[in-house]
Design a protein that fits this description.
methyltransferase, Helicase, Ruva Protein, domain 3, 7 strands, 18% strand, 4-stranded mixed sheet
């Protein structure tokens, strides 16, 4: 299991009961140093099963073991970038359960047509199927935050079949949501050169030029990217 931001180690101790091996990535030097000591005191028979990596989760490219599962209480301000980085960098993990801010959880699991469907929803759909599977009240944390938390399950899936690269598809997604509620022919004009060129590409991809980004699936964004590339 891979854990991001283990902090004082309460979740780490629980993971060590269930996993053959836990790799914990911690950016804070003091916490990273203290975690093995905590495990040694509270679960001495599991010390050898823990690897602590002192690093920024947004920058890691190597780990001491290939993760198969990600379980983490993710920092609220970087939860989406961290998830996308982990999905892009470590393709060995097939499922995960993460805790994030409730609003972020809703966005990650949103489906096309929802008011909260946006860039995080589409980019997560490129990698995996996500679902909101629970809520966590502030009262269980110390210190107590002023936000609700949500649990999101992640099941890795194959990306859409397309000749466009992930970078090309994500560029289309970013442009489509840069100005919400804008028709796609206008939203994509900037990366194509004109509204008429965008309309032609959208029609070739089988997408209505007057549609808006929040109604499209990741497969449709991939089809548009194919036409633009």
């Amino acid at each position: 299991m891979l854990e991001i931001g283990p902090g004082l180690g309460s979740l780490t101790l629980a993971l060590l009961e269930a996993a053959d091996r836990v790799v914990a990535v911690e950016i804070d030097e003091l916490l990273a140093v203290a975690l093995p000591q905590t495990v040694a005191e509270r679960a001495p028979d599991r010390v050898a099963a823990l690897d602590v990596v002192e690093a920024d989760a947004l920058r890691i490219t190597e780990l001491p073991a290939d993760p198969t599962v990600v379980v983490a209480n993710l920092p609220y301000n970087v939860s989406v970038p961290v998830l996308l980085h982990l999905l892009a960098t470590f393709d060995s993990w097939r499922r995960g359960l993460v805790m994030v801010q409730a609003e972020v959880a809703d966005r990650l699991a949103a489906r096309p047509g929802s008011k909260i469907y946006g860039v995080p929803s589409v980019k997560m759909a490129w990698y995996a199927t996500t679902a909101r599977v629970g809520s966590v009240p502030p009262s269980v944390f110390w210190p107590v935050p002023n936000v609700e938390s949500g649990l999101v399950s992640i099941e890795r899936t194959d990306p859409p079949v397309t000749t466009a690269s992930r970078e090309q598809v994500f560029a289309v997604v970013d442009a489509a949501f840069a100005q919400r509620r804008k028709m796609l022919r206008a939203a994509l004009a900037g990366i194509v050169g004109s509204s008429s060129a965008a309309s032609a590409a959208l029609e070739a991809a089988g997408v209505d030029p007057t549609a808006r980004g929040e109604t499209l699936t990741v497969e449709q964004f991939a089809a548009i990217a194919e036409q633009l590339s």
